[in-house]
Fold this sequence. Notes:
single chain, 5 domains, globular, Dna Topoisomerase Vi A Subunit, Chain: A, domain 2, five-stranded mixed sheet, binds zinc ion, five-stranded antiparallel sheet, DNA Primase, Chain A, DNA primase DNAg catalytic core, N-terminal domain, alpha+beta
Amino acid sequence: MSVTDEVKQRLDIVDVVGQYVQLQKAGRNFRALCPFHSERAPSFFVSPERQSWHCFGACGTGGDIFSFVMKKENLEFAEALRLLAERAGVTLAERRPEEEAERDRLRQANEAAAQFYHRALVSTKAGQKARQYLEERGQDLKTMQDFQLGYSPSGWDSLCQHLRERGYSDEELVAAGLAVEGERGLRDLFHQRIMFPITDMRGRVVGFGGRSLPIEGQEEGQPKYLNTSQTAVFDKGGLLYALDKAREHIRREGLAVIVEGYTDAIAAHQHGFANVVASMGTALSERQVRLLKRFSRDVVLALDADTAGQEATLRAVEYQDILGRDIRVIILPEGRDPDQVIRSDPEAWPPLLENAQPLLDYKFEAVSSALDLSQPRQRSQAVEELLPLLAAIGDKIVQAHYLQRLARLAQVREPVLHQMLLRQGRKQGRRREAAAEGEAVATAPSGSKQEEFCLALLLRYPELRENGLALSPDLFWYSENRELLQAWQRCSQPEEMRQAIAESLEEHLQRLSKASLPPPQEAKAKLEEYVDYLNKRELKAVAQANIAALADREAEGGPISVEELAAAAQASRSGSLPEEIGPEEVSETAALLRQSTEIGIRLHQSSKIEMGDEEGLT
Ligand SMILES: [Zn+2]
């Protein structure tokens, strides 16, 4: 038996979840107000039979004890496993010592490279241009030392030679992300760049960012910034630049400031603003937010007019639910970055922070000042821009606040906006709140075998990559399977994936890799069948919850009969909701009915397949 199975067998999900939420018996199940979003009627269910939980409300997701604890405690799978294994009295095998030793070697190679680059910057003729470039931008020798800045020389393989002399093998140099196979053998990855060593939280060098210099003879078409690619020790989306230096300050000040570039963070630290980290050019990732949350829930984003764009802010709105706080933003003057602002006038930085605005307030102001709201068409545009942001808010109270505000701004009645919001929410893959009755969970099919078949197919057949990338992890209810899918989606190579997963999942991965499967020509059709099944399982669970919720409403003797509401739902689907259907609960119920109908249709369309749970991996 695998460790995860053993833990699952020894712990009861009702006890585990019951530690965090007040569970009430409901038929064969337990129900509660969802701990992950705020709601008035309970839509969170725990099934002792299936040992699973499910939120049929805004979260629209579920899983087992591991995913519950991961979500509740903000843990990675391996951490949740450790915590629960301890509770269950199951001993975990430590990470294999030889594997940890390999990772140490890769970090040491990166550290040695950082020293090599640093020396090239501060004490060689080749590094003079780079030094000059940095000095012109206010970075003195002390800063170069503090951040171990460096310069990668122009030679074909000067770093490789240097590290080989120190006993590193070619394989290690490639695995460390420092060298690549070229036509003439191994070559350095970085040439003629200013080097920013990137460290993990403990300050160990795990990779580099390299900025090209405007130097004559520089190879054409080189990107301005080049990063170490993913290695066993470097995972850019899970790292924040300068966090090792900033973490204690962030904790002490109760505030983290996120800037975009290396030099932005460096300038801040140089001037004593030590709670600043950099997201390293890309939009902030969820893992970076979770990392920060360990030190502070208060986060300020320094955005320029570009990064304040729709897509990045949409994601940031979702992160607010992780932090449980508003993310605030400071918008920098046109065309200036934090580096320039701080260097030209350090005193200007603290007031900027003090005046940081909640992200959504900023968006509201930006939209209303850019549009002429006396024009109906422009008001419509305002709704179009702001509604997706509102739909991304998990907290219903906060959402209601901004919905009122949008209603005033757009001069539209709130129920109308609410309808649009529900539609938008579904589009964004969230499910509206729906109170559900107890029996729903227990009768939903299980389907762990189908999840495993999907994974086994993806692992075996690389040609299915695109199909696999499109899969939502929420479709996988078993944590082991969900974890493997997510790792598979992140990693393009099997070896990379093996490195990326928790050790406790290796056995499971191996079992799936060895499964006997249909031949390649049938693989795609098979995968589609299984995915169809998983989709259907999800739909069924929601449909059952909806039916129960409707029965509740009718039993309460709602404002009008279910038949009348069905007509209203029909009308609202065709876009002609009659004026007298106004009160919120009526439109909610109508939406519930409409959703049920839609689910019914989709279930009907997908009913061509029917698979039993008895089918297993062989
Ligand atoms: Zn929920």
